[in-house]
Design a protein that fits this description.
The structure holds two protein chains of two kinds. Chain A is α/β, with parallel strands linked by helices. Chain A is built from twelve helices and 13 strands. In chain A, helix 7 links the parallel strand 6 and strand 7. The chains are: A alpha/beta, B mainly alpha. The structure holds adenosine-5'-triphosphate (ATP) and magnesium ion (MG). Chain A: GO terms for molecular function: ATP binding; ATP hydrolysis activity.
Chain lengths: ~325, ~270
């Protein structure tokens, strides 16, 4: 039984088009031109309980828009969406008590008060029993190591400390489903790692379902078995991370170490030279031509060492995003 | 219910962070009383009675109206909601089991309480200086109806503001919406600057078909004994009719607004 079901979801924003300049402004006062921005354009997927999904795509792909529809902030243009059996945009309290949306750049904390006050307010809003609240808060404060900052005005916290507080505020009602929109944005590498560890641990400990968007491939590689890739509002891929290589990598990388200097131009006949740093060279070749290329190399060049590798996941995803063929 | 009590408590704490803002806001209120008073003083320097009001009666009226204005008119929601809708901060509320308009109404109440506490002190001071004869209705029933009219006035003003601000859903660039219209009308038509019954009879009657005199003038008229019990009941009823109409409109317009809301940000 999937906890999240999305069928043929479309969300078009109505955008008011304004011609530049003052004349354009005046003209648009009387005659407004609109066009539809197709932020999400026919996306379907379904997610089971306890899954930790990486939801990736280039800027403007439609990730945030999808998460906003799933949390009931936006009404879709068309399509069917069910989360925990509810229609999100009905905004039923019983549904709202079971999920949380965390956006990297948004904050819900009261800026001038210690974060503790916002936690207490959320406890009341979500009607969390006192005992459960104490337990959850202790656990979260412990996991995120923020005990010392609970009584400090939020405006005086660093970005990283504040993000941790935001997370606590979002988790105080123990949501079953978590939408994390770029939770590691702007954090240093150490904090990013801690945030990742936390997300992983949270998913494991509470069997919560998590959809995570991020532009840092490390987040996705470390956390998510399954990824969904979208671009321009359309689904490009949905499956195991390892499957991406099979599906999209139409090339392999040959790493060669030469024993004598060679003519770089001649290497171009073998494949695309990605890096040449004598004595080492990396050549990208079509997958189905790998053995042929290797044989050619061994035959015509002074090869000391030869390695055939799958390309890096980052490279493949970049390739998918840009629609370029690297081989 | 408890969640709104907590909102009240947390807003109360928050208000003390902005002490300076608050003091300045109260200072503005005192200036307003004084300015209106001096305006009237020039009128009274040439005649002893204007439209049936003596100098002292006018002063008493102004003191009380400013007190009521502190209660009805202090409404931080009007300064914040437009920005929150436009910037997408509203997202924080729409995903939670809390009513956004109720949340802000609660915060308004917290602000009103603080304002009233200060207004009592200010009015006492001004009263010590000017010593106007404060006359109140001798009929407890009318006073009671006046209190109900005041409660209704607080809600009507809240709803008027929210109706004006709903336009931000359609025009997010204009975070102030039609709020300025409401505030201008509030100054002119509610009795804030002069008692409305000095207007020509026909204008005064026509005003009763707008929500504005129910905000300040009629509750005050009940308190100072200018309404008979029968009139008071009729006006309370009319006030409640306005409340009902506005409640319905706000509900409709906001639910349409949520549908076009584009949840900016992120
Ligand atoms: N409120 C809005 N009004 C009009 N168009 C919008 C609005 N919000 C987003 N869009 C458009 O919809 C598309 C998808 O935006 P969205 O925010 O979902 O992208 P995203 O995948 O989250 O990108 P990023 O990685 O940059 O956060 C973009 O082309 C954007 O310009
Ligand atoms: Mg985004």
């Amino acid at each position: 039984m999937p906890v999240i079901e999305v069928k043929n979801l479309k969300k078009y924003y109505r955008v008011h088009q304004k011609e530049p300049g003052l004349a354009g402004s005046i003209k648009s006062l009387f005659h407004r031109k609109y066009y539809d921005a197709k932020a999400v354009d026919g996306v379907s997927f379904s997610i089971d309980e306890g899954e930790l999904i990486g939801f990736i795509g280039p800027n403007g792909a439609g990730k945030t828009t999808t998460l906003k529809v799933l949390s009931g902030l936006l009404y879709p243009t068309s399509g069917h969406v069910s989360v925990l059996g509810y229609i999100p945009w009905d905004r039923k309290p019983a549904f709202q008590k079971q999920f949380s949306l965390v956006m990297g750049q948004k904050n819900q904390l009261w800026w001038d008060l210690p974060a503790m006050e916002s936690f207490i307010l959320n406890k009341e809003i979500y009607e969390v029993p006192q005992a459960q609240y104490n337990k959850t808060l202790d656990e979260l404060v412990d996991l995120l190591e923020v005990k010392d900052y609970l009584k400090v005005q939020v405006r005086k916290l660093s970005l990283g400390q504040r993000m941790k507080m935001e997370l606590i505020a979002a988790l105080i009602h123990s949501p079953k489903i978590l939408f994390l929109d770029e939770p590691t944005i702007g954090l240093d590498v150490v904090m990013q790692k801690k945030m990742r560890d936390f997300i992983k641990e949270y998913n494991r400990r509470f069997n919560s379902t998590i959809i995570l968007t991020s532009h840092y491939m490390d987040d996705v590689k470390e956390l998510c078995e399954r990824v969904i890739i979208i671009d321009k509002g359309k689904l490009l891929f949905d499956g195991a991370l390892s499957e991406i290589i099979k599906k999209f990598a139409n090339h392999k990388l040959l790493t060669v170490v030469f024993s004598e200097p060679v003519d770089e131009k001649k290497l171009a006949d073998i494949g695309v030279v990605k890096k040449f740093d004598y004595p080492q060279c990396v050549i990208s070749v079509r997958r189905n031509a790998t053995s042929l290329a290797a044989a050619e190399l061994l035959q015509h060049f002074p090869v000391a060492d030869l390695n055939i590798e799958e390309p890096q996941i980052e490279d493949i995803i970049r390739e998918v995003f840009t629609g370029k063929d690297l081989a | 219910m408890r969640k709104y009590l907590t909102v009240f408590a947390i807003d109360w704490q928050n208000q003390f962070i902005y002490r300076l803002n608050f003091v300045l806001w109260r200072f503005r209120n005192i200036l307003r009383v004084l300015m209106t008073y001096f305006l009237w003083s020039t009128i009274f320097s040439v005649q002893t009675s204007v439209f049936g009001y003596t100098r002292e009666q006018i002063m008493a009226y102004l003191l009380l109206v400013i007190f009521l204005y502190g209660f009805v008119g202090s409404s931080p929601s009007n300064d914040n909601i437009g920005g929150e809708v436009s910037s997408g901060a509203l997202n924080n509320f729409l995903t939670k089991p809390i009513g956004y308009l109720r949340y802000w109404f609660t915060r308004d109440l917290s602000s009103k309480l603080l304002n009233v506490i200060f207004a009592v002190g200010e009015i006492f001071l001004l009263w010590l200086i000017f010593r106007p004869p404060l006359v109140f209705s001798s009929q407890p029933a009318v006073i009671l109806i006046g209190i109900l009219m005041l409660v209704s006035a607080v809600i009507i003003f809240y709803l008027l503001g929210k109706l004006a601000l709903a336009s931000v859903f359609w025009a997010p660039e204009n975070t102030w919406g039609f709020m300025f219209v409401v505030l201008v009308l509030m100054e002119m038509l509610t009795g804030l600057i002069f008692p409305l019954d000095i207007l020509p009879r026909s204008a005064f009657t026509a005003l009763q078909f707008t929500p504005f005199p129910y905000l300040l003038y009629f509750p005050l008229a009940a308190f100072i004994g200018r309404l008979s019990p029968l009139e008071a009941v009729r006006l309370l009823f009319q006030s409640l009719v306005w409340l009902g109409i506005l409640f319905y409109l706000v509900k409709r317009v906001w639910s349409a607004g949520y549908k076009v809301y584009s949840a900016s940000g992120g």
